[in-house]
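Hi support team,

I'm filing this because I wasn't sure whether my run with pyridoxal-5'-phosphate finished correctly. The job status page said complete, but I'd like someone to confirm that the output block is well-formed before I use it downstream. Pasting the exact inputs I used:
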Amino acid sequence: MRTRWRGAALMPRPTVLSNRAEALKPSLTLAISARAKALQQDGRDICSMSAGEPDFNTPDFIVEAAIKALHDGVTRYGPAAGDPELREAIADKLTQHNNIPSTATNVLVTNGGKQAIFNLFQVLLNPGDQVLIPAPYWLSYPEMARLAGAKPVVIPSSAEEGFSLDLDALEAAITPNTRLLVINSPGNPTGRVIERSEMLAVAEIVRRYPQLLVMSDEIYEYLLEEGETHHSFAALAPDLAERTMVVNGFAKGWAMTGWRLGYLVAPPEVIKAAAALQSQSTSNVCSFAQRGALAALRGSQDCVKSMAASFNSRRRLLTQGLKALDGLTLVPPRGAFYAFPKLPDHVSSSLAFCEAALEREGLALVPGAAFGDDRCVRLSCAVSHETIEDGLSRLEPLLASQL
Ligand code: PLP
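And here is everything the job wrote out:
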């Protein structure tokens, strides 16, 4: 006890973080939103189009179900993999709605879609494995792949080509170490919906590489422009269902972002491993919140439809407004609640553009660099019609100015 520990206690101890923590990239968007808040506190009039969540409250009948569960004493630990009734209901939804035959053993209830992806990457990927991520991508995919020791391999696309997936580039990127392909439709940040023919072409490629698995992130499945259809990869390619893992959740369709409720659908051995990981890390998702999710699935879907219709009208307003501005190249979004226009050619950095937008015009946007395309910016239409119009009028002078 004498010298060694006493000596150590007297030494100033620098905090030494793990390599993992050191390698983690801080969110590019954090600096912008912190600055937007600071400006707002200083009394500046800020127009924020950076929201990544529905601007609705959770429908009442879902809230009521969770309140009832609290009163009924659903306040204890539950099974790590999720409430058995909810797992069953999710399996029914996959079977009936997505045409992916599933049972409760295929389902893990997670702390948002985010934890479904995190757990999946942890249980599937080894150091040295490669994950194919088509750009523009949701910003957490590469970081989560790195946290699992794997290497993200980005497949670029361009606004000029409608952000369509370059199938030759995709296939050329496949090596013996490629383990997982990520697809996301409707997509964040582009609002792009992958068409049936494109999904089928991707399936053809996946068939040629038996080691390759697919993660299909379908979290925006209900937010579709009229005339669009959501295609689940595993339903279009049933022979690949065993190799396809579906990520989804309640955040976007039912306006339940803060509830932290998502799910993973995968073969039972993957679910078992991900549940074991969950049992050693977070345990079950909040028990009474799961009762809210059960009500969401079992109740009327009218609320989902009416919120989706409202996003459609606001997406159209944003799309029309952006099309009318000089200097932008817009791939019209067909789903989710974002638009991802390409900036004029003279703009060399999306981050510099977003900083100028905030400082000069009080307009908060998300730089495309965060999503793997530094030539674009993301605008959200999960705001009021007035905010969209205000945002567009603040954007216009920036496009002509030298940055
Ligand atoms: N996937 C995509 C494409 C997203 O945009 C998000 C959230 O913004 C998620 C997954 C995670 O959603 P959550 O963890 O809130 O359920």
